[in-house]
Amino acid sequence: MRRKLAAGNWKMNGKLADLAVLERIGATLPDPGCDMLVCLPATLIQPAAGLCESTALRIGAQDCHTAREGAHTGDIAAAQLADAGASAVILGHSERRADHNETSATVRAKAEAAQAAGLSLIICVGETLTERDAGTTLDVIGKQLNASVPDSADAASLVIAYEPVWAIGSGRVATATQIGEVHEFLRARLIARFGAQDADGIRLLYGGSVKPDNAAEIFAIKDVDGALVGGASLTADDFCPIVTALAAS
Ligand code: PEP
Questions:
Q1: DSSP calls for 148-168
Q2: Closest Cα to atom 6, ligand 1: which residue?
Q3: Domains (ranges, CATH) in the chain?
């Protein structure tokens, strides 16, 4: 049985005063019945990790560098994130692939660096609307998965997030059929690569405009083990019902 995971992504939002949201999530859901993580801007990781230490809420990061340390002005190393209290890192989010020209090879190198620092990996894959309309969704996702995930990945520390680019921040959710098809494809690809036993433990998240009012429907889809949540992770009022719906699914 895979333990379900509700992961928030605050993106470039949040200041110290907003950490009260995390306190509220932790206090509202002392025993949520699934894993609960919020990936924060680097500036908030250390104070958030301290604040949430005695709660069920874990703290993650949104990116790391490929190198262990060194002359990379403005970047942050996986070991620094772990040192600040992060337990996981999102890698290959479509906003980073688009804004920073991140290739899947870069994502893989970052994943290896994050693994070496003891961080869990949330590796994102997803097609653009143009790719979906062209009928190349599975081809695109298969290539991203293959090239982004390191051979050394293991079920305990690897999570894949399927995030159709056109569904992120748009209010437009993929249909149950679309999500089910991609998740089934991802599971089959992971089994082919890592073997049934290991691949069976790798969690598959859906991400893209998940909200309290559509969460239960999404979590009922086969092979959806949780969600990567952007906008709706910014308030406890939105995030807590999503976590509760996941635990109940
Ligand atoms: C995301 O940031 O990964 C995301 C899915 O955002 P949203 O939930 O706002 O669509």
A1: HS-TT--TTTEEEEE--GGGT
A2: 230
A3: 5-248 (3.20.20.70)
